């Protein structure tokens, strides 16, 4: 099948999921066309089955805001026609589902029907999408999608609670390509990060408020008071400066390493002993899943879809949002004893394996079939 994928090309989870999905589809023989404003960060190889089309928005002084949706829908129309694309999959409702619907309508005027799948990722619903400024347009474009999927059961329920949705929402959880994480991978260069007797605690995110970055630092502060440990903070975002200052104020600056954005997440997770994800809201928690497949147990909040990924007392522990005392106590329980830590590491891997792309990809192919067949009905 010839598939167009629209996504954000950045380090965020929705872009990562869209990119990994496109790569896997291409490996299965589909022709995949990524359409976005920059080559996605996890997409390094283009070939006969993987194409990238850049959306350009020319600056015009009259516009206070440059019309990206307009440029995207025009690019979609042109690319779909030029390559004979059969199906459109948009990741993140805002503004992708909206632009996708406009492209559908324009193409229909020319007698071309293109089914659209919209995958809801989280903040497009729970944070940004529900804002009154966006809500009518988001509701409209979800309802006009041919198939709607959500990355967790929790996100599906939130979507149904927040919006007036007439469409069925299918849950297709995020996934991981287990073959990319070889158990033989030992070139961790752990010694560059910490001494042999130190435990390594890691956090990876976009450093937005929703990630509760101060909780990461307070949990680590309590850990390092009891056992030798280092904290590795990976990512960039608005809360980073505050985080650096907090480490300074707590006198733990020398024990915290800020690495910035990285394309080598597996290398970092390879030497990590524990992953912290104390988010205020999280539809799934892809970063936690990536940690778990690298045998890193997770201490997280119990919000949103995280409990569908991190299993209490098995792959790690969950606590109420903001309960840093409980998170630190469970972190110490996991970290203090080698045997316990090793058991959690193996469990984390086992739990993560259930999200193997081989189990999830067919679910997407199924919805593609369903959407493709919908071309015989008028879904407008
Ligand atoms: O919050 C992020 O990490 C970025 C955001 C995004 O849109 O890229 O992530 C959302 O989608 C991910 C992939 O489906 C999920 O794993 C994250 O849980 C979700 N983030 C939130 O719900 C806050």
Question: Could you describe the 3D structure shown?
Answer:
The chain is α/β, with parallel strands linked by helices and 380 residues long. The protein has helices at residues 13-27, 68-83, 93-109, 123-126, 135-143, 153-162, 213-226, 240-250, 265-270, 286-293, 324-336, 338-353, 357-373; strands at residues 2-6, 31-36, 50-54, 87-91, 116-120, 147-150, 169-171, 199-204, 229-234, 256-260, 274-277, 298-301, 316-319. It has 2 domains: 2-175 and 357-376, Glycogen Phosphorylase B (Rossmann fold, 3-Layer(aba) Sandwich); 178-353, Rossmann fold (3-Layer(aba) Sandwich), CATH 3.40.50. It is built from 13 helices and 13 strands. A 7-stranded parallel sheet has the order 3-2-1-4-5-6-7, with helices on both faces. Helix 1 links the parallel strand 1 and strand 2. It is elongated and about 70 Å long. The protein binds ligand GMT.
């Amino acid at each position: 099948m010839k598939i167009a994928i629209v996504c954000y090309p950045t380090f965020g989870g929705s872009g990562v999921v869209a990119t990994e999905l496109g790569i896997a589809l291409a490996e299965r023989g589909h022709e995949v066309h990524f359409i976005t404003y920059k080559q996605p960060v996890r997409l390094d190889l283009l070939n006969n089955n993987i194409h990238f089309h850049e959306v350009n928005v020319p600056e015009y002084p009259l516009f206070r805001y440059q019309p990206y949706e307009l440029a995207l829908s025009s690019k979609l129309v042109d690319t779909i026609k030029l390559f004979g694309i059969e199906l459109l999959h948009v990741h993140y409702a805002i503004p992708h589902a909206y632009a996708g619907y406009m492209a559908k309508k324009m193409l229909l005027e020319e007698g071309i029907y293109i089914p659209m799948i919209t995958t809801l990722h989280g903040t497009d619903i729970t944070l940004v999408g529900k804002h009154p400024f966006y809500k009518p347009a988001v509701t409209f474009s979800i309802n006009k999608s041919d198939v709607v999927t959500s990355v967790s059961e929790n996100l599906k329920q939130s979507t149904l609670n927040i919006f007036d949705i007439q469409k069925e929402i299918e849950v297709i959880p995020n996934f991981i390509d287990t073959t990319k994480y070889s158990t033989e991978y030992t070139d961790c260069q752990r010694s560059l990060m910490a001494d042999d007797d130190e435990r390594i605690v890691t956090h990876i995110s976009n450093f937005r408020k929703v990630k509760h970055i101060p909780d990461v630092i307070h949990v680590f502060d309590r850990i390092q008071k009891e056992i030798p440990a280092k904290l590795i903070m990976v990512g960039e975002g608005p809360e980073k400066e505050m985080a650096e200052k907090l480490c300074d104020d707590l006198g733990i600056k020398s024990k915290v390493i800020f690495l910035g954005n990285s394309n080598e997440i597996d290398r970092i997770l390879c030497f990590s002993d524990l992953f912290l994800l104390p988010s205020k809201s999280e539809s799934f928690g892809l970063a936690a899943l990536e940690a778990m497949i690298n045998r890193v147990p997770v201490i997280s909040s119990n919000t949103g879809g995280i409990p569908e990924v991190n299993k209490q007392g098995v792959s790690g522990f969950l606590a109420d949002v903001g309960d840093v005392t409980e998170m630190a106590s469970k972190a110490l329980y996991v970290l203090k004893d080698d045997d316990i830590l090793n058991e959690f590491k193996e469990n984390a891997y086992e739990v993560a394996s259930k999200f193997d792309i081989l189990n999830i990809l067919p679910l997407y192919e199924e919805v593609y079939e369903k959407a493709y067949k919908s071309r015989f009905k008028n879904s407008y």
